[in-house]
TrEMBL record:
The chain crosses the membrane at residues 6-35. One of its GO terms (molecular function) is acyltransferase activity. GO terms for cellular component: plasma membrane. Its main location: membrane. GO terms for biological process: glycolipid biosynthetic process. Pfam families: Lip_A_acyltrans. Coiled coil: none annotated. It is found in: Cell inner membrane. Keywords: Acyltransferase, Cell inner membrane, Cell membrane, Membrane, Transferase, Transmembrane, Transmembrane helix. This is KDO2-lipid IV(A) lauroyltransferase. The lineage of its organism: Bacteria, Pseudomonadati, Bacteroidota, Flavobacteriia, Flavobacteriales.
């Protein structure tokens, strides 16, 4: 049934990478030159993040970002059909032992992630280690695309949990002594009355969700920030940067401060691999 419902995306997914990248190039031309999708937002974000860069440098990063952005979309669709062996050839993990040592020691691990590199491919990590894996997500208003993304993300044994159920579910695992690795995206802008704290991020007072820090403390998790280096199209190297070893003695503000600082360092190193199309500072005084 799923093949019929998502037939157009399965057709795309079975295409070889070289053909997908031709389509990606065409999509880039349409998105960047014809439609100009969120170009003002991207350049505003880049100018806020890198005030010392020239207009030429900003334009160069912007164009590289859009090329990566289009590639990432088709690489994500590829998750529907890609063979595990091909993922293992294209997705190199630099320091997996950092995680496995803690898991073997019966410690929970939180991947405090960001919209960096190809974050959708993080759902393939269970191919490389045997552990209960969960990711918290905010359901999309469009049920068709919501179900499509769940299908892609759960293909390699990641359990997708709606964010409003995540705390209760992960605490249940801990109370039942089930060691888990849990993925929470931390760089989204908090909405409405969501729990939030501010910290300095690219020289701006920036709001961050407190949920990830709260969950990490309650589940006694070791916190890592995973990030990706793009070797070439369709080939990435994944790194794990430890942020916190013992969460019990730290407050939420300290955890968020360390996360934001480390994420900023990574973005400065690979600026074209970050998601610049969202209005990150809209609720922190920046006018778009």
């Amino acid at each position: 049934m799923k093949y019929l419902r998502f037939f157009p995306f399965y057709v795309l997914s079975v295409l070889p990478f070289w053909l997908l990248y031709i389509i990606s190039d065409l999509t880039f031309y349409l998105t960047y030159y014809i439609l100009g999708y969120r170009k003002k937002v991207v350049r505003k974000n880049l100018n806020v993040a890198f005030p010392n860069k020239t207009k030429k440098e900003i334009n160069t990063i912007s164009k590289k970002f859009y090329k990566h952005f289009c590639d990432m979309f088709f690489e994500a669709i590829k998750l529907l059909t890609i063979k595990p062996s091909e993922i293992q050839n294209r997705f190199k993990i630099n320091n997996l032992s950092k995680l496995t040592n803690h898991l073997k020691n019966h410690e929970n691990v939180m991947l405090y992630t960001a919209h960096q590199g190809n974050w959708e491919w993080l759902t393939t990590v269970p191919l490389f280690l045997d552990v209960n894996c969960n990711t918290l997500y905010k359901p999309l208003s469009n049920s068709y695309f919501n179900d499509l993304f769940i299908l892609m993300r759960e293909r390699f044994n990641v359990h997708c949990i709606p964010s409003n159920e995540g705390y209760r579910h992960l605490l249940h695992l801990k109370n039942n002594n089930i060691v888990s690795m849990n993925c929470v995206i931390g760089d989204q802008s908090p909405l409405g009355k969501s729990g939030k704290q501010q910290t300095v991020f690219f020289n701006q007072q920036t709001s961050f969700f407190t949920g990830a820090a709260k969950i990490a403390k309650k589940t006694d998790s070791v916190i890592f920030l995973p990030y990706l280096k793009k070797i070439k199209r369709g080939t990435y190297e994944l790194f794990f940067e430890k942020i916190v070893n013992q969460t019990a003695t730290l407050n939420e503000q300290h955890i968020i401060d360390m996360y934001a600082h480390k994420l900023e360092e990574i973005i400065e190193k690979y600026p074209e691999l970050y998601l610049w199309t969202h209005k990150r500072w809209k609720r922190d005084g920046i006018t778009y």
